[in-house]
Design goal:
CATH class of the domain at 99-155: Mainly Alpha
Bound molecules: adenosine monophosphate, fe (iii) ion, zinc ion
Strand content: 5-15%
CATH topology of the domain at 99-155: DNA polymerase, domain 1
Number of helices: 10
Helix content: 25-40%
Order of helices and strands: EHEHEEHHHHHEHEHEH
Number of strands: 7
Largest sheet: 7 strands, mixed
Length: 286
Amino acid sequence: MRIDLHAHSHVSDGTEPPADLVASAKAAGLDVVALTDHDQTAGWQEAGAAALELGIGLVPGMEISCKTELGISVHLLSYLHDPSHPGLVEEIDKARDARITRARRMVELLAEDYPVDWDMIARHSAPGATIGRPHIADALVTAGVVRTRTEAFAQVLTARSRYYVGHYAMDPVTAVKLVREAGGVPVFAHPVASARGRVVGEETFEQMIEAGLLGLEINHRDNPEEGREYLRAIAAEHDLIVTGSSDYHGTGKPNRLGENTTTVEMLQRILEAGTGTAPVGMPELS
Ligand code: AMP
Ligand code: FE
Ligand code: FE
Ligand code: ZN
């Protein structure tokens, strides 16, 4: 069984429509894939239909943008939650709206030095997509400033850059509680991805676990090996679900589908804990 529980479509900052992402997962030899777009679930239906048609399991999911009191960014994966839970919907809508204002401001700042404008962002994103720095990166590529998204992040768009603007996001403890209320399974995404910026300390892990966190995404290319050992110790101590995933973004990132995978046992724990929505087209898992 090959199971990859973290992938993005163009409903957020991936480059493929949800149905194409599912087809790519099938072509990559996966048996189960999760669609985890940033801050929204608009791709679930299309992905579900494609999964049934192609004969691959789909776990509907989402990656929620969060921010701690200290301003540290946390990404929380949620699997199988009720997509219409009012409290959760209100918060992710707020974050998505804030992302647009923030991206407009970043483009204004960038336009002082580079030939980019808001129309380019609009052209580089699917209608209604969750707008992120990757879309701004695409505009910089089109403008010939950099060659790839990766270069754009390395040279222009880091969190330390003078063009960087933050945006509203709920705190991770609230997010964990809301996901549980919505019948979802909260899993801390790439928790020690220090190359992306500051990461949270032990206290935040404790608070999130106390609030109902159920898993840690340990096998992810952005978690350095030392960090993984630390995460394995936390997972063992609290009997948490452990996942491994690609964080595929289509052609937007080097991450390949199936480059990290999750065991059947761990997927079964997710399926048992998730009560807000049903998985689609699951293969026999034993
Ligand atoms: P944002 O949430 O808008 O601040 O942007 C963060 C997003 O950018 C994450 O979802 C990543 O997928 C993406 N990202 C971060 N670093 C890179 C990189 N080096 N190359 C391409 N995409 C990246
Ligand atoms: Fe992303
Ligand atoms: Fe993430
Ligand atoms: Zn992701």
